[in-house]
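Contributing new records

If you add data, match the layout below exactly. Sequence lines come first and carry their own label; structure lines follow with theirs. Keep one chain per record. Anything else will be rejected by the validation script.
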Amino acid sequence: MLRFIALFLGLASLAFGATPNLTQDEAQARSRQISAVDYKLYFEFTAGSSQYSGRTQVSFDLRARPRSLFLDFQGDSLKSVVINGRDMPQAAIRDFRVQLAPEMLKPGRNRVILEYENRFDTNGSGLHRFVDPADHKAYFFSHFEPFRANRLFPCFDQPDLKASFELTVMAPRDWQIVSNTLATITRAGERSRHVFKRSPRFSTYLFALVGGPFAVFEDARAKLPSRVFTTQSMARYADVENIFTVTRQGMDFYEAYFGIPYPFKKYDQIMVPHFNAGAMENVAAVVVNEDAYLFREKPQPSSLNRRANTLLHEMAHMWFGDLVTMRWWNDLWLNESFATYMSYLAQVQATADKKAWQNFSSRMKVWAYWQDQLPTTHPIETPVADTLSTFDNFDGITYGKGASVLKQLAFFVGEDSFRKGVSAYLKHHAWKNAERRDFIRAIARSSGKDLQAWTRLWLQTSGINTLEVDYDTNAEGIITRFELVQGRGNGDGVLRPHRLQIAFYSQGVPGKRVTAAIRGERSRIGTLEGLPAPDFIFPNQGDHAYAKVYLDERSLAWARAHLEQLPGDIRVNVWNTLWFMVRDGRLSPAAYMDILLDKLPRETDASLVKSFRWKLDTLFSQYLSEEEWRSSARRLHETAWQQLLSLRPGSDLQAAWFEHLLRAAETTGAAQRLHDLLDGRVVVPGLELSQDRRWQILVRLAGLGAEDIENLLSREAQRDPGERGSRQLFAAQAARPDPGSKARIWKRLLEDEDLPLTHVRAALEVFYQRSSLALTRPWAKRYFQELPKVVSKRDPLFARRFIRFAYPRLYLDQDVLDATDQLLREKAGEPGFLRRLLLEARDSLARAMRIRKDAGAGGVSGGPV
């Protein structure tokens, strides 16, 4: 057993002491002091420079002369501060704040002018600058949620101090500058001056500033200025007609649904690399992750639908989040859950994707179910003491469970009552801040229902209930008793109210369907008694309930034999049930793989086939024994190959199976097949070997230790010198089963603070390979050795990724659990996310060990850590 005690002594005191922060108490005190905030911002940017200069004028009303008042500012160099026309002596940035001299302030209107210089950021937040390696052109974009607007300019950086913004930017002549309003541009020589119209009032974290020589596309059919921006090197891949179509569809739908015209004067969507999330809902200037949503091959319907969902999510925020904004970060869950719910509703009702709720079940709800069963499960609504804690609970419960519960609420009160309540809420609080109670109160008024108990049970308690049917039949097969049983589940173990539908199927054909409202442990459903027992009963038709649904024995047996006869939305939920059974020890991983290999090739929905990505990764990396893993990988690879050859060329299904072909490539024969595909010696009709797919093959070949991998990677890097190629090359080097390559990647991860976080995640996701665990054993040990320095020295954005993705989760060994437990016992919970992420990693590892043990398997090969 390894002993890391000495390494962890004193860790309890480690924290991000040099991290900017604002507490809720401080924010509340400040909002009682000031109001009517207005900013005038001026920035100068120079081509090729890693710095910029700024001037901020902030005007505000004071209720009385304060004892203390500060502006948040994470700037680098403060040159001067002028308060009400007088120079403030000894102006300085202390603890990321500029304390304003109280004696220079006055009741009523005040004006503070600050001049400063800053460096660009390189971690995907603040004002992030990047140079595209394809053409060496430089760009920047902002990302300020929750507390980084004050990295760009001094401000009162809290959501309930909404302000107007007047912006002027001086920049190189060929640059595009994008912000929240439209600009008037004048050019003189090699410089241009961009003067943006004064904005309506919104929160500082929603301010946007984007610049560089972007390619610009405008929608001539839009009823207001609607543009898409891409880097020059990616402009040829911008399928803007599809993006514009979805944008128009979403705009029309939301205006009708909310009963409120789009509240801003234009709508821009800017595609950039290095973005740490899917997208960000800056007012009228949405920044979108280029890596995820610009496709370098002909996009398939499932990919377009996934992008449409993200675009519609951000657009929903223009009303719910931007027009009406949470007062503090404890209501961030409502912001994100509502936009998630609305994006799927908009897809179904306004676009061609009528199966969007099916994708919600296979993606969002699966994420929520997983998150909600971890030891760190928490209520949907949780306190947020400070800005540093904002993202501690930014997870599958915030997005997936919250959206699922809102979907249940809409079904619970009636969808028309829900819509009317939402509209009333937005109209009443427009241009202001609101809280969850305001939202629930509006829904309660529109529906005439008392939602106090509902709120307490659904929003303020943790855990997930179980649902299953319990019924008796007589000798003729007629149901004599039918009950729906609700289990207390994990977490707080409460029983909750559900409104749901129960459906009967015989030979795959829908039969009787009833709507039921349940509250307690057992609910009698008398309308189903006296009916013949069907082949299959599903107690959550339409997926309105948020619960782990278990099938009765008869239904489960029928589904395992005839799954393909059921409708797509039911198939998704049957697969979810089978996965619950694996995780709960009711079904062995090998048995699940047998079902998958039998049924998945018969699946006709490409999105559903793709949705197995995470489950297969978990099975292959943790749940299956060594022998089962190799056998299952070989069988899946051959199945995927046959699917590629037999499916319609160029189809969405063919593309989905290509991903599984790569995932299951573990043998020398599989490696040779991938090599032949890459070199064109083997051609699959209809399968476009795009640049991104070529990199996918190369990363897999690198992980398999292909003999000529260095030459292959060098050749491909020359072929694809851009930002995406750079990231994929870095990932491929991380995947190689070579000690030298591992050491170089590890060193750069820990020492290069300018390394984009997108590169960090891409490398760590493939750093450990099950086929070479003995090789990476030293780095598994080093993870625990390096963690104290990462926590104390690096910023939280990097630390979160390192804790999560560098954790040696493939080593199903007690030593890893012991090392994790030692760290937890030393109370290394500062900041809070460290303890949380370690607890979650430990739980996943311990669960995998239990599953492997229950299935009669041993530990992994490669020896102890």
